Amino acid sequence: MESLAADIIDILGTISFAISGVITATKKRMDIFGILIIATVTSVGGGTLRDLLIGKSPVTWILNTSFVYLIFIATVVAIIFRKQLRYVRKSLFLFDTIGIALYTITGVQMGLLIGLAPVICIALGTITACFGGVLRDILCTEIPVIFRKEIYASACIVGGGMFVLLDHFGVNTVINSVISGSLVIVVRTLAVIFKLQLPSIYKKEELV
Amino acid sequence: MESLAADIIDILGTISFAISGVITATKKRMDIFGILIIATVTSVGGGTLRDLLIGKSPVTWILNTSFVYLIFIATVVAIIFRKQLRYVRKSLFLFDTIGIALYTITGVQMGLLIGLAPVICIALGTITACFGGVLRDILCTEIPVIFRKEIYASACIVGGGMFVLLDHFGVNTVINSVISGSLVIVVRTLAVIFKLQLPSIYKKEELV
Amino acid sequence: MESLAADIIDILGTISFAISGVITATKKRMDIFGILIIATVTSVGGGTLRDLLIGKSPVTWILNTSFVYLIFIATVVAIIFRKQLRYVRKSLFLFDTIGIALYTITGVQMGLLIGLAPVICIALGTITACFGGVLRDILCTEIPVIFRKEIYASACIVGGGMFVLLDHFGVNTVINSVISGSLVIVVRTLAVIFKLQLPSIYKKEELV
């Protein structure tokens, strides 16, 4: 039951990341192949970088074709209905936020399992959640959006930190995942509702 | 004899990729060191990414200095004769096309050897053939050309798919390589001659 | 004693790379999180790529949290005093130059230890020293500065070559490190003082 819930969220997260890839790639007028690559990189890029850094090989998606097919289908559907994507923006935001929450927890857990230091585990969680988007932006020659204006990675860092803390105090992994994952979602959602940003280090005249 | 032919094609492919790196890097007015790096990345980048993804370490070129020297010589010669490169454009196209055909087959074969799923093998072949060029364009801060307008990766996917199919039916590897490699070359050549592109998903007014 | 000196230089190099990341990232008006990522990538990027290429896993920084904390502190201090950074430009240049000298020697040594060919060892040293900066520039969507105008990588290649040569003749590693590292520093410093560049392959009218 828990496993089914996790699978569904995993699927929703993957779909959401793929769609965000489609949106960025179509803005750059890429062809179908390019869009497919960007969607795939957005979905699996963060986990791939994490796997490379910790030496897990082959990387996860190489061994799991279901996600490759899922990304393919999500991309094709998103291309067909791309004009309508604006009407489901709120659902997309929800999926995306659930997606980064899940990816964060997965990354932190993998670090803890192989006994890495807390700060490194939090970094791995954040990398898993955020670097698919970073690679997406780099392949589209844009400065990664999460480096500039969103409380996005910060939500992952907060949630990842909570997971490490609760794990340290022996909290059950499932309960911990729910609490820490929810924290990511809450922080990110509040930030978007109240238009919160990280405190700016620039003076007004520097930003013109 | 077959091995000699494969070696010659491998060498021609490497030279061709290195030259395409020189052409892109000189357009960006890079210095000699920069040009050399771009030429190297174009030549070995796809295979390196494939090796990292499947966990082959160290990566291939680290253990094979002949290709490093070959790239170095090709780069120096291409820099010296760069004004004349336009007169050999057709030969370059031929080498490049043979190169991606060979790289595709190599990548697919490595995937099959370690028992990966067909769709992943095709992806590895395409990555081997195409991601050197993607990295070249990213290092030059250009949106990768194969994401935008060429039947390039598509030829690799078709040829890679054919290899997996024939392999499934037990066709001899050498014969299979010749057939599938030729298919890559034919698809790519026809696409360029008849100016074929992937079907556009954009309306005319979106492309202005 | 020697180890202490090496540690101090290592720390100064890391700080210097982190600061160069802060300078580039603030020019792009990144937020605090983005600046921190760029500083980290600049510091650990070259070593990470080297580790991936030779198959050392997990990569070095994953197992050594002191550098993560050091980068964090250096970044925060550099952000606070970023207006004053211009007054310490000469010290920064010194740290940076010592940093690339040290990183070069580390990379070459790791290659020699696992028995790689001389030319590959020199390449690994240069990658260790220079690719943090390349990744920094790519993440900021700039063409990497070392591909365009500085005797930077060339100094690493010369020093790395010297290390391989002296090692071949059985020179003690500590003495070799001092000689070859100093050579990197001297070449780089002379190049900046006398404004040396690699010989240009472009005619004047091409550079307008």
TrEMBL record, chains A, B, C:
GO cellular component terms, semicolon-separated: plasma membrane
Stretches of the chain forming a coiled coil according to its record: none
Pfam families tied to this protein: Gly_transporter (PF03458)
Record keywords, A-Z: Cell membrane, Membrane, Transmembrane, Transmembrane helix
Membrane topology: Multi-pass membrane protein
Places the protein is found: Cell membrane
UniProt domain Glycine transporter: residue ranges: 8-82, 94-167
Transmembrane segments: 6-25, 32-49, 61-81, 116-139, 151-169, 175-194
Family indicated by similarity: Belongs to the UPF0126 family.
UniProt protein name: Putative membrane protein YeiH
